[in-house]
Write a structure and sequence with these properties.
The protein is α/β, with parallel strands linked by helices and 266 residues long. It has two domains: 71 residues, no CATH class; 174 residues, Rossmann fold (3-Layer(aba) Sandwich). The protein is 59% helix and 12% strand. It has ten helices and six strands. The protein has a six-stranded parallel beta sheet with strand order 3-2-1-4-5-6, sandwiched between helices. Strand 1, helix 3 and strand 2 form a beta-alpha-beta unit. Helix 3 packs across helix 8 and helix 8 runs antiparallel to helix 9.
């Protein structure tokens, strides 16, 4: 097994390969360069769901589930800001049941800022942001109660979820809400796919935030990471070919990727 005690030139090269494209495309995005992000059906569904609620006169609900203050939450907040702007423009009620008190404070400020950005600051109702419980299933029970009492027309489940995911999704389905979910929890994806109208899987959550906000750092990071992943894909393919060659013709053994990583220079 390969072990590395100290940074080597090979590690420095791999670090540059990862960080370099990210920094480059963040700079390009800040300059105003248009960076293409593929449109995902779930992103289109956000506009459809907000418009549907405006037509029906029914409220929307957004929750980040069990998400704490971390990069996943920052991506969720970008989507929340976009949805809150739509709610302000269409004069829709937007409900935000929360599981964490610190997330509640941040989310409330994001929604308030979204209302101000479209000149509807006076329409913001702080009572729409509700702390339910920091206990998993107590939070889920409170969510169900709000969904049924308010007869929500759309539900947005963005963030980290655990065993309560299907409970939340079923609550929206029972009241006929259009549901868009996005999670970085691989175990919960199947439940959202079966119970929600649209599901964003894994890193599509970050892509949605970058696409909707157009924020240079998010957009450049997403674009740069995709390029870095492509480089690593090439490295993996080359490594597989080298390993295959060495196993078939051991007498002509070629140094593999481990040699590059452990290389300490001349």
């Amino acid at each position: 097994m390969l072990t590395i005690d100290h940074a080597t030139p090979g590690i420095i090269i791999l670090t540059i390969v990862v960080i370099g494209p990210v920094l480059y495309y963040i700079r390009e995005a800040k300059k105003g360069r248009s960076l293409f992000v593929r449109r995902i059906p779930g992103i289109d569904a956000i506009d459809e769901a907000t418009g549907r609620c405006a037509e029906l006169g029914r409220p929307m609900m957004f929750t980040s589930g069990m998400t704490t203050l971390n990069p996943t939450l920052y991506a969720c907040l970008g989507v929340l800001h976009y949805i809150a702007r739509k709610a302000a423009i269409f004069r829709n009620k937007l409900l935000l049941p929360q599981n964490q008190t610190d997330v509640l404070a941040v989310s409330e400020e994001v929604v308030r800022d979204a209302y101000r950005s479209v000149g509807k600051g006076a329409s913001f109702d702080p009572r729409s942001t509700v702390f339910l419980s920091d206990e998993q299933f107590a939070f889920a029970a409170g969510y169900i109660g709000i969904a049924q009492r308010e007869r929500i027309g759309a539900a947005f489940l963005f963030g980290y979820f655990a065993a309560e995911s299907l409970v939340l999704a079923e609550a929206g389905q029972q009241v006929g809400a259009m549901q868009v979910a996005a999670t970085t929890s691989p175990e919960q994806v199947a439940f959202f796919i079966s119970a929600c109208d649209y599901t964003l899987i894994g890193e599509e959550l970050f892509a949605a935030s970058a696409y909707l906000t157009g924020e240079p750092i998010q957009l450049g990071s997403l674009y740069g990471q995709d390029r870095a992943k492509f480089v690593f894909l090439i490295i993996i393919i080359v490594g597989v070919l080298i390993a295959t060659f060495n196993s078939v013709w051991p007498e002509y053994k070629i140094p593999n990727i481990d040699f590059l990583i452990a290389w300490k220079g001349w």
